[in-house]
């Protein structure tokens, strides 16, 4: 479906959002009495329990911890989320089974052994094979993935090192450079293996480091030998690059990573059943799995808690929407999108009118991303003063969520939460993704904004 068609859906969904709003969405905004009344009820419910969502996030992050697919922690988190949705009185709370990859890190270390001796901070990339013992080899450095692809030299017996630098954060750009950095992380191993390399090291995908390596998935090409791959902290990447410029460098690498058979997991689903159009669905999504470092607080525990809180607030506020609002906490987002694929396959016959995802951390409220181009933006614009109550400053003409993407491709209107992103990637996929980075008030306001968005999309 085209952006134009999706924009038209947004316009139709929201066409009754202002009083006297039989008028066209391009007309000057009328006083939004109905909308402001709904927002006031959501605000009141939120202010009655301002720390409720954060306390819930503490249960998940401090009580259960990080949640990689295949782990017992993820299984505990699934049971926890289901129980909390039942506590909140949601409808049709259930686990929908999904088979997920089960990769385990094992013990790992890397040391520069020539021309100096220096341990490096690293994390094996998700899905990497292990080294089966300790591997020692000379390092060949490339500035980015293109330079590796362009090389005509053989890398036989070598460790390839791809030092792609992510640019400093720039809030005017839709993508702060993560997508390009991720390409290097995903493809460096197979590109290096095609040229004979024994292993690959990549610079962590971040612009800022405090010597924390960043985890993330890789993608092996079919028919290419699978070689071990790991991400270095930014500081160690810089050291390795400096040493390489001065002469030959050798590294010792040991990765205990291995892949076990796929494991059972599930998406968690809970609903506010629509009072008039229960078969029309507004999906609010986030993902419950995380990497195996830190607490998975910012990515994406906070998103899960915010979605759960949005439905709780609507129920508490007595706002029963015409359409069904469905919370989906996806499994397996970080590695292979198994939860998203299974959901899409099993729910293909249902009518999703809109799909929202929150998976960009839980910084201070800032923006809501709107798919559907100009028409979508025009339909949303009159609502900005109401969303401002929850700290939302702007709508952005760009919405993306990896889990909801297949549903958007089928025609659902797309939305996502875009809180302040200045520091999101600093801690993304690291040991530092912990609860202390998230302010209770930011979580409260973002959750209230999600509740308002869900209500508007489901009630008009
Ligand atoms: Zn995420």
How would you characterize this protein structure?
This protein is an alpha/beta fold and 460 residues long. The protein folds into two domains: 3-101 and 262-459, Aminopeptidase; 106-256, Glucose Oxidase, domain 1, CATH 3.50.30. Helix content is 35%, strand content 23%. It is built from 14 helices and 16 strands. The protein has helices spanning 3-13, 33-48, 52-64, 72-87, 145-150, 178-194, 234-246, 297-316, 338-346, 373-380, 384-387, 405-409, 424-427, 440-459, and strands at residues 91-104, 108-114, 118-120, 122-124, 135-142, 159-162, 199-203, 229-232, 250-255, 258-272, 277-287, 323-330, 351-357, 367-370, 394-396, 413-418. The strands form two sheets. It has an eight-stranded mixed beta sheet with strand order 1-10-12-11-13-16-14-15. It has an eight-stranded mixed beta sheet with strand order 3-2-9-5-6-7-8-4. Strand 5 (135-142), helix 5 (145-150) and strand 6 form a beta-alpha-beta unit. The radius of gyration is 23 Å and the shape is elongated. The model is unreliable at 16-33 (pLDDT under 50). Zinc ion (ZN) binds at residues 287, 299-300, 333, 359.
Average of pLDDT: 93
Rounded to an integer in angstroms, the radius of gyration calculated over CA atoms is 23 Å
The computed structural class is alpha/beta
What kind of assembly state do the chains in view correspond to?
Answer: single chain
Helix amount: 25-40%
The counted number of beta strands is 16
Second rung of CATH, namely the architecture of the largest domain = 3-Layer(aba) Sandwich
CATH topology of the largest domain: Aminopeptidase
Task: Report the span from N to C terminus.
Answer: 22 Å
């Amino acid at each position: 479906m085209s952006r134009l068609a999706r924009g038209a859906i947004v316009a139709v969904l929201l066409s009754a959002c202002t009083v006297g709003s039989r008028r066209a969405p391009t007309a000057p905004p009328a006083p939004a009495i109905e909308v402001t009344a709904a927002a006031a009820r959501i605000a009141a419910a939120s202010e009655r329990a301002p720390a409720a969502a954060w306390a819930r996030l503490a249960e998940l992050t401090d009580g259960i911890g990080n949640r990689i697919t295949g782990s017992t922690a993820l299984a505990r988190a699934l049971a926890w989320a289901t129980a909390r949705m039942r506590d909140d009185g949601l409808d049709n709370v259930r686990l929908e089974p999904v088979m997920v990859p089960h990769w385990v890190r094992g013990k790992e270390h890397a040391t520069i052994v020539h021309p100096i001796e220096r341990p490096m901070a690293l994390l094996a990339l998700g899905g990497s094979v292990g080294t089966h013992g300790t591997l020692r080899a000379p390092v060949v450095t490339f500035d980015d993935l293109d330079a590796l692809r362009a090389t005509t030299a053989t890398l036989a017996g070598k460790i390839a090192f791809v030092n792609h630098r992510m640019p400093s954060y720039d809030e005017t750009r839709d993508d702060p450079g993560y997508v390009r950095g991720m390409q290097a992380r995903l493809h460096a191993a197979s590109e290096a293996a095609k040229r004979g390399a024994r292993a690959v090291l990549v610079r962590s995908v971040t612009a800022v480091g405090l010597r924390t390596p960043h985890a993330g998935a890789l993608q092996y090409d079919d028919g290419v030998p699978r070689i071990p791959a790991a991400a270095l902290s930014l500081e160690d990447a810089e050291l390795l690059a400096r040493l390489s410029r001065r002469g030959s460098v050798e590294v010792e690498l040991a990765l205990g990573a291995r892949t076990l058979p796929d494991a059972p997991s599930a998406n968690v689903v809970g609903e506010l059943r629509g009072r008039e159009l229960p078969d029309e669905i507004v999906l609010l999504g986030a993902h419950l799995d995380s990497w195996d470092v830190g607490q998975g607080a910012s990515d994406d525990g906070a998103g899960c808690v915010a979605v759960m809180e949005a439905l709780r607030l609507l129920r508490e506020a007595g706002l029963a929407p015409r359409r069904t609002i469905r919370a989906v906490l996806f499994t397996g987002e970080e590695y292979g999108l198994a939860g998203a694929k299974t959901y899409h396959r099993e729910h293909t016959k249902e009518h999703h009118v809109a799909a929202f995802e929150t998976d960009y951390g839980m910084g201070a409220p800032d923006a809501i991303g709107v798919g559907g181009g100009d028409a979508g933006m025009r339909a949303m614009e009159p609502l900005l003063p109401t969303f401002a109550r929850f700290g939302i400053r702007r709508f952005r003409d760009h919405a993306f969520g990896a889990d909801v993407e297949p549903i958007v491709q089928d025609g659902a209107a797309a939305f996502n939460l875009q809180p302040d992103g200045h520091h999101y990637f600093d801690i993304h996929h690291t040991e530092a993704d912990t609860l202390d980075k998230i302010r209770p008030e930011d979580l409260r306001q973002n959750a209230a904004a999600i509740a308002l968005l869900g209500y508007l999309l489901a009630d008009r």
